[in-house]
Design a protein that fits this description.
348 residues; alpha+beta; BirA Bifunctional Protein, domain 2; 2 domains; two-stranded antiparallel sheet; 9 strands; elongated; binds adenosine-5'-[phenylalaninyl-phosphate]
Length: 348
Protein backbone atom coordinates (compact mmCIF):
# COMPACT_ATOMS: atom_id res chain seq x y z
CA UNK A 1 0.00 0.00 0.00
CA UNK A 2 1.27 3.42 -0.88
CA UNK A 3 2.43 5.53 2.06
CA UNK A 4 -0.33 8.09 1.64
CA UNK A 5 -3.07 5.44 1.78
CA UNK A 6 -1.42 3.87 4.79
CA UNK A 7 -1.47 7.22 6.55
CA UNK A 8 -5.08 7.75 5.63
CA UNK A 9 -6.02 4.38 7.02
CA UNK A 10 -4.05 5.11 10.23
CA UNK A 11 -5.98 8.32 10.65
CA UNK A 12 -9.38 6.69 10.13
CA UNK A 13 -8.60 3.85 12.53
CA UNK A 14 -7.08 6.27 15.06
CA UNK A 15 -10.06 8.62 14.99
CA UNK A 16 -12.44 5.68 15.42
CA UNK A 17 -10.40 4.37 18.39
CA UNK A 18 -10.30 7.84 19.96
CA UNK A 19 -14.03 8.37 19.74
CA UNK A 20 -14.66 4.88 21.15
CA UNK A 21 -12.30 5.34 24.13
CA UNK A 22 -14.19 5.37 27.41
CA UNK A 23 -11.72 6.46 30.03
CA UNK A 24 -8.53 8.47 30.57
CA UNK A 25 -6.33 5.38 30.80
CA UNK A 26 -7.49 4.21 27.40
CA UNK A 27 -7.00 7.62 25.79
CA UNK A 28 -3.45 7.74 27.15
CA UNK A 29 -2.76 4.31 25.73
CA UNK A 30 -4.04 5.44 22.32
CA UNK A 31 -1.86 8.54 22.42
CA UNK A 32 1.27 6.47 23.14
CA UNK A 33 0.32 3.87 20.54
CA UNK A 34 -0.41 6.37 17.75
CA UNK A 35 1.91 9.26 18.37
CA UNK A 36 4.73 7.67 20.38
CA UNK A 37 8.29 7.29 19.09
CA UNK A 38 7.61 3.68 18.17
CA UNK A 39 4.14 4.40 16.81
CA UNK A 40 2.91 3.92 13.21
CA UNK A 41 3.00 7.66 12.32
CA UNK A 42 6.67 7.98 13.24
CA UNK A 43 7.25 4.74 11.42
CA UNK A 44 5.42 6.05 8.33
CA UNK A 45 7.42 9.27 8.40
CA UNK A 46 10.55 7.20 8.26
CA UNK A 47 9.27 5.73 4.98
CA UNK A 48 9.42 9.22 3.41
CA UNK A 49 13.03 8.51 2.54
CA UNK A 50 11.93 5.99 -0.05
CA UNK A 51 9.78 8.52 -1.90
CA UNK A 52 10.83 10.70 -4.82
CA UNK A 53 11.95 14.29 -4.19
CA UNK A 54 8.65 15.64 -5.62
CA UNK A 55 6.44 13.37 -3.56
CA UNK A 56 8.31 13.76 -0.30
CA UNK A 57 7.17 17.27 0.76
CA UNK A 58 3.60 16.56 -0.24
CA UNK A 59 3.34 13.28 1.68
CA UNK A 60 5.44 14.75 4.52
CA UNK A 61 3.06 17.62 5.02
CA UNK A 62 0.12 15.20 4.79
CA UNK A 63 1.71 13.06 7.52
CA UNK A 64 2.16 16.09 9.73
CA UNK A 65 -1.41 17.13 9.13
CA UNK A 66 -2.62 13.68 10.18
CA UNK A 67 -0.44 13.71 13.26
CA UNK A 68 -1.89 17.11 14.27
CA UNK A 69 -5.40 15.95 13.54
CA UNK A 70 -4.99 12.90 15.75
CA UNK A 71 -3.31 14.92 18.53
CA UNK A 72 -6.22 17.40 18.52
CA UNK A 73 -8.79 14.61 18.56
CA UNK A 74 -6.97 12.97 21.51
CA UNK A 75 -6.91 16.28 23.36
CA UNK A 76 -10.58 16.93 22.76
CA UNK A 77 -11.56 13.42 23.83
CA UNK A 78 -9.39 13.74 26.93
CA UNK A 79 -11.16 16.99 27.86
CA UNK A 80 -14.52 15.37 27.38
CA UNK A 81 -13.57 12.38 29.53
CA UNK A 82 -12.10 14.60 32.24
CA UNK A 83 -15.25 16.72 32.37
CA UNK A 84 -17.39 13.59 32.56
CA UNK A 85 -15.26 12.14 35.36
CA UNK A 86 -15.42 15.42 37.35
CA UNK A 87 -19.18 15.56 36.91
CA UNK A 88 -19.52 11.95 38.10
CA UNK A 89 -17.34 12.66 41.16
CA UNK A 90 -19.34 15.80 42.08
CA UNK A 91 -22.52 13.86 41.67
CA UNK A 92 -21.28 11.06 43.95
CA UNK A 93 -20.14 13.54 46.63
CA UNK A 94 -23.28 15.68 46.56
CA UNK A 95 -24.44 16.75 50.05
CA UNK A 96 -28.08 16.95 50.88
CA UNK A 97 -28.18 20.20 52.83
CA UNK A 98 -31.81 19.63 53.71
CA UNK A 99 -31.00 16.60 55.94
CA UNK A 100 -31.26 17.35 59.70
CA UNK A 101 -27.81 17.98 61.33
CA UNK A 102 -26.22 16.03 64.21
CA UNK A 103 -26.51 18.19 67.32
CA UNK A 104 -23.17 19.10 68.99
CA UNK A 105 -23.29 19.28 72.78
CA UNK A 106 -22.42 22.82 73.83
CA UNK A 107 -20.07 23.37 76.78
CA UNK A 108 -21.03 25.72 79.60
CA UNK A 109 -19.11 27.20 82.52
CA UNK A 110 -19.34 25.12 85.69
CA UNK A 111 -22.07 26.31 88.07
CA UNK A 112 -19.46 27.44 90.64
CA UNK A 113 -17.59 29.35 87.93
CA UNK A 114 -20.85 31.10 87.10
CA UNK A 115 -21.26 32.22 90.71
CA UNK A 116 -17.65 33.49 90.65
CA UNK A 117 -18.24 35.29 87.31
CA UNK A 118 -21.38 36.93 88.69
CA UNK A 119 -19.51 38.14 91.78
CA UNK A 120 -16.58 39.39 89.69
CA UNK A 121 -18.95 41.35 87.43
CA UNK A 122 -20.62 42.95 90.41
CA UNK A 123 -17.35 43.97 92.06
CA UNK A 124 -15.80 45.21 88.82
CA UNK A 125 -18.90 47.41 88.50
CA UNK A 126 -18.05 48.90 91.89
CA UNK A 127 -14.48 49.71 90.86
CA UNK A 128 -12.72 46.66 92.33
CA UNK A 129 -9.84 44.98 90.52
CA UNK A 130 -9.68 41.19 90.15
CA UNK A 131 -6.33 39.72 91.19
CA UNK A 132 -4.94 36.22 90.97
CA UNK A 133 -2.50 34.41 93.22
CA UNK A 134 -0.60 31.11 93.30
CA UNK A 135 -2.32 27.91 94.46
CA UNK A 136 1.06 26.61 95.60
CA UNK A 137 1.73 29.23 98.23
CA UNK A 138 4.51 29.84 100.72
CA UNK A 139 3.94 29.55 104.44
CA UNK A 140 4.96 33.19 104.77
CA UNK A 141 2.03 34.59 102.74
CA UNK A 142 -0.55 31.94 103.63
CA UNK A 143 -0.01 32.15 107.39
CA UNK A 144 2.70 34.46 108.73
CA UNK A 145 1.57 37.58 106.87
CA UNK A 146 -1.96 36.76 107.97
CA UNK A 147 -0.86 37.16 111.58
CA UNK A 148 -0.52 33.41 112.08
CA UNK A 149 3.07 32.78 113.16
CA UNK A 150 4.41 29.22 113.33
CA UNK A 151 2.84 27.29 116.25
CA UNK A 152 -0.11 29.69 116.44
CA UNK A 153 -3.02 27.53 117.65
CA UNK A 154 -5.41 29.06 115.05
CA UNK A 155 -3.42 27.32 112.30
CA UNK A 156 -5.41 24.24 113.32
CA UNK A 157 -8.53 25.93 111.92
CA UNK A 158 -7.11 25.25 108.44
CA UNK A 159 -5.60 21.77 108.27
CA UNK A 160 -2.95 22.05 105.59
CA UNK A 161 -1.45 20.04 102.69
CA UNK A 162 2.29 20.84 103.04
CA UNK A 163 4.55 20.21 100.04
CA UNK A 164 7.76 21.15 101.90
CA UNK A 165 8.09 22.77 105.34
CA UNK A 166 7.82 26.17 103.60
CA UNK A 167 5.52 25.41 100.65
CA UNK A 168 1.89 24.39 100.82
CA UNK A 169 -1.38 24.25 98.88
CA UNK A 170 -3.02 27.50 99.93
CA UNK A 171 -5.72 26.96 102.54
CA UNK A 172 -7.59 30.17 101.78
CA UNK A 173 -7.42 33.10 99.34
CA UNK A 174 -6.35 35.49 102.13
CA UNK A 175 -2.63 35.42 101.13
CA UNK A 176 -3.77 37.45 98.11
CA UNK A 177 -4.62 40.23 100.55
CA UNK A 178 -0.96 40.43 101.52
CA UNK A 179 0.20 40.20 97.89
CA UNK A 180 -2.25 42.90 96.75
CA UNK A 181 -1.20 45.29 99.56
CA UNK A 182 2.50 44.69 98.85
CA UNK A 183 1.93 45.56 95.16
CA UNK A 184 -0.40 48.54 95.65
CA UNK A 185 0.69 52.16 95.43
CA UNK A 186 -1.51 53.94 97.99
CA UNK A 187 -0.50 57.35 96.61
CA UNK A 188 -2.67 56.47 93.62
CA UNK A 189 -5.82 55.80 95.69
CA UNK A 190 -7.51 53.13 97.79
CA UNK A 191 -7.04 49.40 97.23
CA UNK A 192 -10.23 47.57 96.27
CA UNK A 193 -9.80 44.02 95.09
CA UNK A 194 -11.45 40.63 94.84
CA UNK A 195 -9.52 37.43 94.32
CA UNK A 196 -11.29 34.19 93.39
CA UNK A 197 -9.63 30.78 93.26
CA UNK A 198 -9.29 27.19 94.40
CA UNK A 199 -8.15 26.40 97.94
CA UNK A 200 -7.20 23.14 99.64
CA UNK A 201 -7.63 21.74 103.15
CA UNK A 202 -7.17 18.39 104.76
CA UNK A 203 -10.86 18.42 105.65
CA UNK A 204 -12.75 15.15 105.63
CA UNK A 205 -15.22 15.37 102.76
CA UNK A 206 -18.88 15.45 103.77
CA UNK A 207 -22.08 17.10 102.54
CA UNK A 208 -20.84 20.65 103.22
CA UNK A 209 -17.03 20.17 103.23
CA UNK A 210 -14.67 19.36 100.41
CA UNK A 211 -10.85 19.02 100.60
CA UNK A 212 -10.73 21.26 97.52
CA UNK A 213 -13.16 24.13 97.20
CA UNK A 214 -13.32 27.78 96.14
CA UNK A 215 -13.14 31.11 97.86
CA UNK A 216 -13.56 34.68 96.75
CA UNK A 217 -11.46 37.04 98.81
CA UNK A 218 -12.41 40.68 99.07
CA UNK A 219 -10.30 43.54 100.43
CA UNK A 220 -10.74 47.30 100.70
CA UNK A 221 -8.00 49.44 102.26
CA UNK A 222 -8.43 53.19 102.50
CA UNK A 223 -8.33 56.00 105.07
CA UNK A 224 -11.87 55.85 106.52
CA UNK A 225 -13.23 52.36 106.07
CA UNK A 226 -15.84 51.22 108.60
CA UNK A 227 -17.67 48.09 109.63
CA UNK A 228 -20.77 49.69 108.04
CA UNK A 229 -19.00 49.61 104.65
CA UNK A 230 -18.35 45.91 105.15
CA UNK A 231 -21.98 45.17 106.05
CA UNK A 232 -23.30 47.22 103.12
CA UNK A 233 -20.97 45.41 100.72
CA UNK A 234 -22.02 41.98 101.99
CA UNK A 235 -25.68 42.96 101.68
CA UNK A 236 -25.05 43.84 98.05
CA UNK A 237 -23.43 40.43 97.51
CA UNK A 238 -26.46 38.68 99.00
CA UNK A 239 -28.93 40.80 97.00
CA UNK A 240 -26.97 40.24 93.79
CA UNK A 241 -26.86 36.46 94.17
CA UNK A 242 -30.11 35.71 95.95
CA UNK A 243 -32.44 38.72 95.56
CA UNK A 244 -33.60 41.49 97.90
CA UNK A 245 -35.68 39.36 100.23
CA UNK A 246 -32.58 37.86 101.87
CA UNK A 247 -31.07 39.53 104.94
CA UNK A 248 -27.46 39.46 106.11
CA UNK A 249 -26.60 39.02 109.76
CA UNK A 250 -23.10 39.58 111.12
CA UNK A 251 -22.11 37.43 114.10
CA UNK A 252 -18.96 38.03 116.18
CA UNK A 253 -16.29 35.48 115.37
CA UNK A 254 -12.52 35.05 115.44
CA UNK A 255 -9.88 35.20 112.70
CA UNK A 256 -6.29 36.12 113.54
CA UNK A 257 -6.10 38.42 110.50
CA UNK A 258 -9.18 40.56 111.29
CA UNK A 259 -10.21 42.47 114.40
CA UNK A 260 -13.09 42.59 115.04
CA UNK A 261 -14.04 39.47 113.10
CA UNK A 262 -17.46 38.35 112.03
CA UNK A 263 -19.13 35.51 110.28
CA UNK A 264 -21.98 36.40 107.94
CA UNK A 265 -25.24 34.51 107.84
CA UNK A 266 -27.82 34.79 105.08
CA UNK A 267 -31.55 34.13 105.51
CA UNK A 268 -32.14 30.42 104.98
CA UNK A 269 -33.28 29.87 101.36
CA UNK A 270 -35.42 26.94 102.39
CA UNK A 271 -37.61 28.49 105.12
CA UNK A 272 -36.97 32.22 104.55
CA UNK A 273 -36.05 32.66 108.22
CA UNK A 274 -38.79 30.61 109.88
CA UNK A 275 -36.47 27.79 110.91
CA UNK A 276 -36.08 24.37 109.28
CA UNK A 277 -33.81 21.31 109.22
CA UNK A 278 -31.52 22.86 106.57
CA UNK A 279 -30.62 25.83 108.83
CA UNK A 280 -30.82 23.74 112.01
CA UNK A 281 -33.89 25.78 113.01
CA UNK A 282 -31.95 29.05 113.27
CA UNK A 283 -33.40 30.70 110.13
CA UNK A 284 -29.83 31.57 109.00
CA UNK A 285 -27.04 29.94 106.98
CA UNK A 286 -23.36 30.82 107.44
CA UNK A 287 -21.63 31.72 104.20
CA UNK A 288 -18.46 33.68 104.86
CA UNK A 289 -15.87 35.04 107.23
CA UNK A 290 -14.99 38.74 107.37
CA UNK A 291 -13.74 41.57 109.53
CA UNK A 292 -11.67 44.72 109.81
CA UNK A 293 -8.10 44.07 108.65
CA UNK A 294 -5.85 43.51 111.69
CA UNK A 295 -3.23 46.29 112.16
CA UNK A 296 -0.48 43.62 112.20
CA UNK A 297 -1.55 42.43 108.76
CA UNK A 298 -1.43 45.99 107.39
CA UNK A 299 1.95 46.61 108.99
CA UNK A 300 3.51 43.37 107.69
CA UNK A 301 2.39 44.31 104.15
CA UNK A 302 4.01 47.74 104.47
CA UNK A 303 0.79 49.72 105.06
CA UNK A 304 0.72 52.20 107.97
CA UNK A 305 -2.17 51.17 110.29
CA UNK A 306 -2.22 54.60 111.93
CA UNK A 307 -3.33 56.08 108.56
CA UNK A 308 -5.08 53.23 106.78
CA UNK A 309 -7.72 50.71 107.73
CA UNK A 310 -9.75 48.21 105.78
CA UNK A 311 -12.23 45.40 105.67
CA UNK A 312 -11.79 41.94 104.23
CA UNK A 313 -13.99 38.95 103.58
CA UNK A 314 -13.59 35.41 102.32
CA UNK A 315 -16.69 33.76 100.96
CA UNK A 316 -17.27 30.24 99.70
CA UNK A 317 -18.90 30.14 96.25
CA UNK A 318 -19.45 26.38 96.65
CA UNK A 319 -21.72 27.08 99.61
CA UNK A 320 -23.37 29.96 97.72
CA UNK A 321 -24.11 27.60 94.84
CA UNK A 322 -25.60 25.07 97.28
CA UNK A 323 -27.83 27.80 98.71
CA UNK A 324 -28.82 29.28 95.39
CA UNK A 325 -29.77 25.98 93.77
CA UNK A 326 -30.79 23.94 96.83
CA UNK A 327 -27.94 21.42 96.35
CA UNK A 328 -27.69 19.29 99.46
CA UNK A 329 -24.23 17.71 98.89
CA UNK A 330 -21.15 19.76 97.92
CA UNK A 331 -19.45 16.66 96.48
CA UNK A 332 -21.85 16.73 93.51
CA UNK A 333 -19.99 19.76 92.18
CA UNK A 334 -16.79 17.73 91.83
CA UNK A 335 -18.03 14.43 90.39
CA UNK A 336 -18.30 15.79 86.82
CA UNK A 337 -21.58 14.02 86.28
CA UNK A 338 -23.02 15.93 83.33
CA UNK A 339 -26.57 14.87 84.31
CA UNK A 340 -26.07 16.89 87.49
CA UNK A 341 -24.15 19.80 85.95
CA UNK A 342 -26.34 20.42 82.89
CA UNK A 343 -29.47 20.98 85.00
CA UNK A 344 -28.17 24.46 85.90
CA UNK A 345 -27.60 25.61 82.33
CA UNK A 346 -31.09 26.92 81.74
CA UNK A 347 -31.32 28.73 85.07
CA UNK A 348 -30.33 32.31 85.77
C1 LIG B 1 -11.32 31.69 105.94
O1 LIG B 1 -10.85 30.90 105.12
C2 LIG B 1 -10.87 33.09 105.99
N1 LIG B 1 -9.69 33.27 105.19
C3 LIG B 1 -12.00 34.01 105.55
C4 LIG B 1 -11.75 35.45 105.87
C5 LIG B 1 -11.19 36.26 104.90
C6 LIG B 1 -12.04 35.97 107.12
C7 LIG B 1 -10.94 37.61 105.18
C8 LIG B 1 -11.80 37.29 107.43
C9 LIG B 1 -11.26 38.09 106.44
P1 LIG B 1 -13.16 30.02 106.76
O2 LIG B 1 -12.28 28.91 107.07
O3 LIG B 1 -14.34 30.23 107.66
O4 LIG B 1 -12.38 31.43 106.68
O5 LIG B 1 -13.69 29.85 105.28
C10 LIG B 1 -14.44 30.86 104.62
C11 LIG B 1 -15.60 30.23 103.82
O6 LIG B 1 -15.10 29.19 102.98
C12 LIG B 1 -16.64 29.54 104.71
O7 LIG B 1 -17.60 30.45 105.19
C13 LIG B 1 -17.24 28.54 103.75
O8 LIG B 1 -18.18 29.20 102.92
C14 LIG B 1 -16.05 28.14 102.90
N2 LIG B 1 -15.44 26.88 103.36
C15 LIG B 1 -14.58 26.68 104.39
N3 LIG B 1 -14.21 25.39 104.46
C16 LIG B 1 -14.83 24.75 103.44
C17 LIG B 1 -14.83 23.39 102.97
N4 LIG B 1 -14.06 22.46 103.50
N5 LIG B 1 -15.60 23.11 101.90
C18 LIG B 1 -16.33 24.08 101.29
N6 LIG B 1 -16.37 25.36 101.67
C19 LIG B 1 -15.62 25.70 102.74
Amino acid sequence: MALKERLQELRDRGLADISRSENLTRINEIRVQLLGKKGPITEALRGLRELSAEERPQVGSFANQIRDELATAIEERRNELEAASRAAQLNAEAIDVTLPGTPVAQGQPHVIQRIIDQLEDMFIGMGYQVVDGPEVEDDHHNFEMMNLPKDHPARDMQDTFYLTPELLMRTHTSPNQARAMENHDFNKGPLKMVSPGRVYRRDTDDATHSHQFHQVEGLVVDKHVTMGDLKGTLELVAANLFGDEFDVRLRPSYFPFTEPSVEADITCFNCMGKGCAVCKYTGWIEVLGAGMVHPNVLQMAGVDPSIYGGFAFGLGPDRFAMLKYGVTDIRNFYLNDTRFLTQFYQRG
